[in-house]
Amino acid sequence: MSEPPRFRRVSAPAGAPEAPATSRLNKRMSELGLASRREADAWIERGWVLVNGEVARMGQQVTMKDHITVAKEATGEQAERVTILLNKPMGFVSGQAEDGHAPAASLIGPHSHWTEDRSKTRFAPHQMRGLAPAGRLDIDSIGLLVLTQDGRIARHLIGQDSDIEKEYLVRVTMLDSPDAQPQNTQARVAPEKLALLRHGLQLDGQPLKPAKVSWQNEEQLRIVLREGKKRQIRRMCELVGLKVVGLKRVRIGKVNLGPLPVGKWRYLAPGELF
Fold it and tell me: Is 274 part of any domain?
């Protein structure tokens, strides 16, 4: 006979977002950073969540004054979930396979695990269950892609209120120039165009958040965004007369791509935070 679950009480962290008078328990748990909504529902279903000392019900409404307690089994299960950093090559889609192109997750396996990964975690097939990309990277873009089993990390990176920086190196040419023609693109871009890339553009009828944009060399821009609309950088560049001919994501939050080779992956290390 299995032992009953052991519980720990969780209080709202300092600076936690204010909640309405009542909200669904899974939503409140997500706001507190305890679990994703789907994960919270699974815990509730297994009897791993108490509200004011009573076993929680699916869909239960709670207030900010209610005491939410989760079983140690839940946090232990959560600790076993992995987050993987992949240097995605061109030709792979971030999510589900489409138009004959394989998903980035198909690259994950023991054969492509970076040999210099310092993590003590070893690859196991169960790590692929529920492993999903936390953000997109276009099929014709390369660089850092995060795949995770942890709903808390996914929400932190791509949740509606996420404000995480994503840094890209973007090779550009002028839209009105033949691709084969060598050129000093930097010299042909007026300062006001660069200013527009930083702030003032709209996509899909919505103003974009301010971005950091600077020249790395005469053909390459460094762009840092705090949002991720579909093909955003390519569309931004087109609006100022530029064509993207190469795009690489090199950083998400505090995590850098670093020397991770193309097509290889490593685990997010313990203590490594976005």
Answer: no
Q: pTM, whole model, 2 decimals?
A: 0.75
CA distances from 101 to 91, 92, 140 (A): 7, 6, 11
74 burial (CB, 10 Å; 0-12 / 13-18 / 19+) is buried
In this structure, what CATH number is given to the domain that contains residue 108? 3.30.70.580
Instruction: Assign residue 35 the CATH number of its domain.
Output: 3.10.290.10
For 183-248, the DSSP string reads --HHHHS-HHHHHHHHTT-EETTEEPPP-EEEEEETTEEEEEES---TTHHHHHHHHTTEEEEEEE
Strand 142-148 and strand 242-252: pairing?
A: parallel
Same domain, yes or no: 119 and 171: no
Q: What residue numbers bound the domain in which 44 lies? A: 7-78
Structural domain count of the chain: 3
Span 12-23, pLDDT tens digits: 554 555 545 889
Residue 207 has pLDDT above 70, yes or no: yes
DSSP state of 125: G
State the Cα–Cα distance between residues 171 and 272, nearest whole angstrom.
29
Active-site residue set:
138
- In this structure, the answer to whether residues 149 and 179 fall within a common structural domain is no
CA–CA distances in Å: residue 59 to residues 37, 42, 138, 271: 11, 12, 37, 33
